[in-house]
DNA sequence: TCCTTTGTATCAAGGACTTGATGCAAAGGT
DNA sequence: ACCTTTGCATCAAGTCCTTGATACAAAGGA
């Protein structure tokens, strides 16, 4: 039982640690890798594991709570928000909206944009970001 | 001729001036608002118009050249790259690819994603959240 | 209620990024 | 060839962001 590591942070990357933490958790929550109600490591725990300050982890949790993905209670820890799973649809809509907006600004028609997305799906992915290394601690 | 207001910069915005300039030009080039071969204002000219330092405008031009959108020659000015117009397709593909990758990571099927994009187009522009940041540049 | 757990607020230090100014180098025009 | 035009390189200063440490507040358990 290795009290597995929770999230990985690469300090050499230009994107700041608190963003790395935030995005990794956001991905997991959105994809269902972390079910609603699942308890996350405490701020101190995760900070210690990653060798960071409490405030750094706290900031990540905070922004995720503001985004509705997490729920925190002092003394009670931090958990994945109840409807967080249901947020997937919202996340999809949001991305689609942004994509559509960009396409419109480029003067691209809906048909053209749809064709491009369709093709992108068929091509499969070339640049694969390293996915998260989270292990859920259940209790 | 042409005292055309090509570019505007709003210092109050959080995004730095050189990025504002870069993105505006990138948009114009992508959409064909600036045809291939079109000569842009000189670094000094644009800097003076905007009340900025030469280096600020130069940086924007530089990054655009690195991205293949512009071509510069010392003493010869800066022009829209010959195949820049043809880049629109590349830009579209790039965005579509990024969108598709995100969708896949969310476990969204192609059909579902296409439906979302289609709907986003029908809805038109409403409010713009800034949760996700999609940047245009490659490389 | 008391004590522990856990998230929050604050603030100073450090670093990264952006800007501005100036001099240099290369291309163009005559 | 000469001189002008125009982009590039460099470097210091200012600003903004991020981090780390510490003290505080709220919730939970016995």
TrEMBL record, chains A, B:
PROSITE patterns per record: HTH_GNTR
SUPFAM superfamilies: Winged helix' DNA-binding domain
Name of the protein in question: GntR family transcriptional regulator
Keyword DNA-binding: yes
Pfam families registered for this protein in UniProt: GntR
Keywords: DNA-binding, Transcription, Transcription regulation
SMART domains: HTH_GNTR (SM00345)
Keyword rRNA-binding on entry: no
HTH gntR-type domain location: 15-83
């Amino acid at each position: 039982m290795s009290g597995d590591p929770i999230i990985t942070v690469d300090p050499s990357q230009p994107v700041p640690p608190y963003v790395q933490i935030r995005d990794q958790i956001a991905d997991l929550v959105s994809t269902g890798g972390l079910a609603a109600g699942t308890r996350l490591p405490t701020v101190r725990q995760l900070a210690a594991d990653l060798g960071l300050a409490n405030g750094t982890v706290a900031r990540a949790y905070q922004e995720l709570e503001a985004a509705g993905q997490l729920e925190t209670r002092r003394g009670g820890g931090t958990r994945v928000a109840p409807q967080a799973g249901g947020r997937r649809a919202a996340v999809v809509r949001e991305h689609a909206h942004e994509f559509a907006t960009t396409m419109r600004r480029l003067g691209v028609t809906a048909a053209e944009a749809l064709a491009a997305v369709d093709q992108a799906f068929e091509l499969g992915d070339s640049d694969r970001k390293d996915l998260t290394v989270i292990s859920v601690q259940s209790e």
